[in-house]
Design a protein that fits this description.
Blueprint: H1 9-23, H2 30-37, H3 41-44, H4 51-77, H5 84-97, H6 99-104, H7 114-131, H8 138-160, H9 170-194
Helix pairs in contact: 1-2, 4-5, 4-7, 5-8, 5-9, 7-8, 8-9
C-alpha cells in the first residue's frame, strides 16, 4: 500500500506504541512517528490527531492495561496481607512487557482528561483495597500507596535502563522487596494500633 493509504487512527496508535517501545517513550516525536509510517508529519493531522491527543490516548491505554493486570492479580490472590505480592509482580511484569505504555501511564491526569482521570481513580482504589487488611489509617494508607509505587517504579526504571548487572536474579530481588513491604506495613499497622 502507498504511504498513508489505508492509514487509520488505530494503526497510528499501534505504530506509536511500537516505535516508543523501540526508541523510548521520551524520544517518541511527531516527526519520528510520521517517518515510521512513511508519511509527512502534517499528514497525521488528516486522521484527527494531535501529538498531545495521541499521547493522552497512549496514557489511557497504558493505565487501562496496568489496571487490568493489577485487578487480575488482586482477584486471583484473594485477600489478606500477602495479596500485595501478586499485585507487585503484576506491576513489574506489565512494565517489562509494555515499557512505552507503562511510561505513558505514569503521569497524573491533566484537566479535561476524564477517561484517564477515572482510570487513575479506579487504579488507586484497587491498591487501597489490597491494603485494607493492614488496617492502616487513611493517611498511612496514602503513604503506603506512594511507597509501593515508588519502590516498584524504581525497580522497573533501573531494570529498563539496564542498571542491574549483578548476577543475582532480579525476580529474587523483587520478592525480597515485596516481603519487605508486607513486613513494613504490618509493623506500621501494629504501631498505629498501639498508639
Amino acid at each position: 500500500m502507498a504511504a498513508g493509504v489505508g492509514l487509520t487512527r488505530e494503526i497510528i496508535v499501534q505504530e506509536a506504541v511500537r516505535l516508543a517501545d523501540e526508541v523510548g517513550w521520551n524520544r517518541l516525536t511527531w516527526s519520528s512517528l510520521a517517518s515510521s509510517l512513511g508519511i509527512r508529519p502534517p499528514s497525521l493531522y488528516n486522521h484527527g490527531e494531535s501529538f498531545d491527543e495521541l499521547k493522552s490516548e497512549l496514557a489511557v491505554r497504558g493505565l487501562r492495561g496496568l489496571r487490568g493486570a493489577l485487578a487480575a492479580a488482586a482477584s486471583s490472590s484473594g485477600s489478606g496481607e500477602d495479596a500485595l505480592k501478586p499485585l507487585g509482580r503484576a506491576y513489574v511484569e506489565f512494565a517489562r512487557r509494555h515499557p512505552a505504555l507503562y511510561q505513558a501511564s505514569l503521569r497524573a491526569p491533566a484537566p479535561g482528561e476524564a477517561a484517564f482521570g477515572e482510570l487513575a481513580r479506579e487504579t488507586l482504589e484497587l491498591v487501597f483495597g489490597v491494603l485494607e487488611p493492614y488496617g492502616l489509617s487513611h493517611e498511612n494508607a496514602v503513604h503506603a500507596v506512594r511507597i509501593i509505587r515508588s519502590a516498584l517504579h524504581g525497580l522497573v526504571a533501573i531494570d529498563l535502563a539496564g542498571g542491574f548487572r549483578m548476577p543475582e536474579a532480579l525476580d529474587a530481588t523483587l520478592e525480597v522487596l515485596l516481603t519487605t513491604l508486607v513486613v513494613g506495613f504490618k509493623h506500621l499497622a501494629n504501631t498505629e494500633a498501639s498508639q
